[in-house]
Known about the structure:
Layout: H1 2-10, H2 13-36, H3 47-59, E1 64-71, H4 74-81, H5 83-98, E2 105-110, E3 113-119, H6 123-137, E4 141-143, E5 146-148, E6 152-159, H7 166-183, E7 188-190, H8 193-214, E8 219-228, E9 234-245, E10 249-251, H9 253-263, H10 266-283, E11 293-297, H11 306-319, E12 326-331, H12 332-337, H13 339-351, E13 355-361, H14 368-373, E14 378-381, H15 383-387, H16 393-405, E15 409-412, H17 418-426, E16 431-432, H18 443-454
Parallel strand pairs: 6-7, 9-11, 11-12, 12-13, 13-14, 14-15, 15-16
Antiparallel strand pairs: 1-3, 1-6, 2-3, 4-5, 8-9, 8-16, 9-10
Helix pairs in contact: 1-2, 4-5, 8-9, 10-11
Amino acid sequence: MVSMVFFYLFKQHNLFTLSTSFLLLTNYMFLLRKRFEIDSLTGVPNQNAFMTRLEWILKQKHEATVFVLDIENFRFINHRYGTAVGDALLQSFATYLSALVLDAEVFRIAGNRFSVVASKLSHNEIVRVVNRFKVRIAQPWEVAGASISFHVNVAIIELPDHAEAKDQVVDTLDFTLSEIKSRRRQSIVIYSKRLMLLRQRRLNILTALRNAISNESMVVVHYQPIYDTSTGHLVSAEALMRLQDDQLGLLMPGEFIPFAENTGLIVNLTEIMLRRVCTFLTNHETAFRHLRHISINVSAEDFSSSDMARRLLDIVDNSGVKASRLSFEMTESLLLESYETVKNSWGAFAQRGITLALDDFGTGYSNLEALVNMPFDIVKIDRSVVSNSTNNFELITLISVVLERLGKSMIAEGVETQEQVEFVRAAGIDCMQGYFFSKPVPEEHFLNLLRYDNAK
């Protein structure tokens, strides 16, 4: 039509050809864009279309309910049944979702992740959708001659209540899915004010963690004394990290260590801790004259390369502290996850005289190969074994006998009652630590405990 108008007005044949070509090009670009926004496997809109849709919803301040459905461990389905069956399952799943919510749009936003975007649903409507989905997903999926059962995690958010920008929507959905996977309590979660506050706190903790790397004064070290079972004397200690933040207050390891491990910042924290402990030992050499060592918790990341091991040893050398005054602790779970990676660096520390300890022994990961082949001097028996010693004295005794025959020293963790003290002593375990003796305390308090013990 446009080309005919051009021809009529200007009587120019070349304009007719030009305008026709322009229209053909425009139509081609439109089709190309639509193709760019359609998932070739399932035929539903893809992530690009999903982001465009989110942008439009937020710009228009349209109220919407967004479901994101993540098929868990989909790679195992591909491995077991083959990619052809996996593809057929994705196609069938997309078709099912297209009919799940009336007048909703379905998007495939990742390999095994889909989204359903609907106009705002009431709470009761969301519950009805969720219940229908639960009934269906509990049944096997019959595709390509295979009967497949699988698990799906579902995150639900409401717009614009829970997000004001499309990237924020994606981050919020990812956070909700990660919470589902980490907690394992329920597979379908509606983003709520509680999760909003939790997410904000975690972001604040991550910020505090990054600040602590550049401002080491934020890192606070507390020490928990370890006592000899036979003599009752304070013989060593475990250094435990906290972060002191102006807004968040004193942060405990359970809150920030997982973030440090996930972001790779755990290596920086280990270096800071080692410097602080070495300085503490150097400044109070007289008070520590009877102390065997101070232990520091380390992670598999600290042994990921020979360079990292060298950096830790350089810190020890530069401080002037004897390596034998230090001990490194690693949990069984971390060791077994990275056994081959850890082995070489672990041996380098042992050669320098650093005492090596296997932490949390008895938590279910126990590996005799690690006990025999890795140069552990000390095995720390987990508090779960100690707390159960009153009901199962044979277990802690058996552990003690085996470790003694392997030539390992032993420390019982989490000793909290006189009765547990007696059981640990009767089992022949060398040392004890726990709240019965002292909680982790600041440097000056620990020095007072040490001075008191030296005066006995």
